[in-house]
Each structure stands twice: as structure tokens, then as C-alpha cells.
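Folds abound. Consider this:
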Amino acid sequence: MPTILMATDLSPEADLALQRACQVAKRLHADLLVVHAVDSSMPLVAQDRLCKEARSQVEEQIARCPQTADLSVRILVESGHITECILRTAAEEDVQLIVLGQHHQSTPELFVGTTLERVSRLAAVPVLLVARQANDYRQGVLALDFSACGSAALRMASMLVDGGKLQAVHICNPPLSTRLGGQRARSSYAVEQRATLEYLIKDELETLEMQGITKPEIGLTLAEGGVLASLLEEVKQQRPDFIALGSHGRSGIGEALLGSLALELLRQPPCDVLVAR
């Protein structure tokens, strides 16, 4: 059975994330693993005491959440850095999705370096940021391109809506040679882009259907201009439950990076945000 990992810092934001993690775990027929880390710089005796106290608090948090009923929930509390704990546990448990609550920084400029930023940048599996009250996912907006992480976002978003609706947005900015060719060349370019995207969507959904996953209803919008502005305009029109996108980016020495779009949406999320690698 697949596993969903939810990291808690015992805050109100984590309560909201726990509710969402439970809903997603039930939808994906998965177990839920709730992870908490305590400060490893404390003396060992203090660490043991803090771990016991934290486990009791996590148990209380789970008991307060009615969505945990009829769900297999495990708890992991250990000393160490929370980011390292999340990433290591996700690899050891072969988790399908990591769920996190919204970061506490009120200033977006302080987002880089938070647990959310680090996990979203380094995790090998999709990361879901919970920023809104937990109603069932029925509609999402997807930033779609031809990258592997864009396809991963499509797959996970389709699983989350479970037969609901996805509105895919593709930024179709023609190259200079096409723009110089006039409107006919631009229209032809857009037709080719749409056909390729529709084939990609069809292929991914057929694969999911073979796995027993209900296909969503997918609309496709091609837009020109800035990707963030186009995506936020679609969010304004669709009022989705979440946005899904690929993380994008690696440095020259192989270190994972967050693309500017993912970084901006995680800093100031208009709704829940799914980032896939």
C-alpha cells in the first residue's frame, strides 16, 4: 500500500495540513505517516524527554482530526533537522507524496531556507503545500509543458481530483522566426503545440487508467505572455482547489533548484500548491 508523509510542527497550519493529508490518503488508498522532529542540539536526556512529549502532542493532534477515522496512521518522532528527517524518511518509506503546512514567515522574502522551500527543492516525490481549508479536491489548475516534471504534475494532479476537473495552462510563446512570419505562422505554431499537448495528455491518462485511476475532465488553454500572470488569471477564473506544476531547474553541479514560478507560488500561494519533480 502506498504511503503519504505529512510533516507536523504541531501548529494550526499543521492541523490543516493533517486534514488534507488524511483526505488525500483515503483518496489514494494510502497509509499516512506523520513525522515530527525535535531539536538535536539539546543534551541526549533532554532529547529523549522532548521526543516523548512531542509524540504525545502528535497523538493528540491526530485524535482531534476526525478525518483520521478508518485510516492507517503511523507516527515517527525523532531528534534531528526536520528537512533531513522528511527527505530520509520519504526515501526509506518510498512515499508517494509529501504534505506540508504553510510556512510561518509573514514576509515572502524570508521564504528561502524554510523547511517548505528546502523540501520542495530536494524531494524526489511531489510535495503538496496546504494553504486552504480542507474541502475535497474536485478541481485543479495545471501548468503544463513538455518537461518530465510537468508530466509528473499532470499524473499526481489527476490522482488528486479523482475524476474531477483539471484546467491545463500552456504558455505558447512562438520563437522569433515564427512571430516574423505573421499571424498565419503563429496560428500554425499554436495548432502544433496544442496537438502535441493533447497527445501527451492522452498518453498519460491512458497509463493512469490502466492503473485503475479515474480520468479527470481536462481542458487546455494556450496563452502567450508571462507564465505566472497567465496562471494566476486562470486561477482567478477557475477558482481551483489547487495548482499543480513542475519544480524545474538544476544547477550546473547537479543541485536541485526551484524554478521561479514554483518559488513564487509557494511564497504566496493563492490556494494549495502541488510541486512535482
Observations:
- The domain at 3-130 is CATH 3.40.50.620 (Rossmann fold).
- The chain has two domains: 3-130, 139-242+259-268.
- The first strand starts at residue 3 and ends at 7.
- The two ends are 22 Å apart (CA to CA).
